[in-house]
Amino acid sequence: MDKEEVESKKYDEEEGETERYPTPKSSSIFDDTTRALTHSEAGECLHMLGKCESGLGYAYLCLNASNKGLTDIRVIPMFKYVLYVDVSGNRLTTEALRYLTSMKYLLMIRADRNHVTSGELEPMPYLQVLTLNKNKLTSTSGISHKQLECLELNHNNIEEVTLNPYDLENLKHFELRGNILTTTNGIFFPRLTRLFLAENQIEKLEGLEILVNLTTLHLRSNKLSNLTGFDSRCVKLNYLNLRNNEIIKLSELEKLSCLPALETLVILENPTVPDREAEEEVAYRHIVLAMLPNLTRIDKDPVLFDEKREAKEFRRQMLRDGTKFPDLDTNPPN
């Protein structure tokens, strides 16, 4: 793989274009049958030898029982030294998943692609990672784990975020791609650093001022037409993806000037960014850089030194002419 292919792959991953949750091959097990994980099968699912919690011996710390058509995993807690469990790609319900809450020292649960309808589990004192992607969730209520740092609820049917920030005070990474959110309201986690909200129906930005540690925000494929809601208290926001929204006026981007750390901005596939000829592309980038001079990358391309210099001169010319950025929405430069 050459350098260009590597960069393209990296960009696709940042954009969320790679398939993160591949659909498993169809199972021969009928949906109306029960399928319990046996003790011997569970033993075969163990891997990653490591020190026990006591530090006095060694045991297998991971159990991967994914893609087995399981409906019953009550045997898993018998493996008391396991810290990481993956039961993705089964037919587990919320009730079936709750057997794992008896595992006091569990650090990670991955239960993607199941039949889980609620994330409400008994609080687990050491749980740090919980993923419930591609389930049947309609609400975020009841998720309460004090040490949780990573929560993924992608591709469910969640309409609003109703999580209690005091129950998730250590949350740093939150994913809600592919749901039916219409606002960012309800995401009140000051320690959050990465937030992924692509493929929703978000029309309104609310509550972002709480996210003082946020560095990455993905809002691709939503319904944003204006950018009111960004706040100067988002002092660490470095990467912002607004691709495929409904931004009609390029001057809306001026509202991002309150973000002192913003370096990467993706705004492809908006009405204000149609397919352009080379000269139009140059003018477009000059306008964006004149508004946001700290950018180091716009869309797929890094900002060059000459572009920064020319954008600075363009801004000076605007000041001399008394031109405002909204004026350029109807009269773009040649």
UniProtKB/TrEMBL annotation:
PANTHER family: LEUCINE-RICH REPEAT-CONTAINING PROTEIN 23, NISCHARIN RELATED. Residues 1-30 are annotated as: Disordered. Keywords: Leucine-rich repeat, Repeat. One of its GO terms (cellular component) is cytoplasm. It comes from Habropoda laboriosa. InterPro entries: Leu-rich_rpt, LRR_dom_sf. Residues 1-22 have a biased composition (Basic and acidic residues). It comes from the Eukaryota. This is Leucine-rich repeat-containing protein 23.
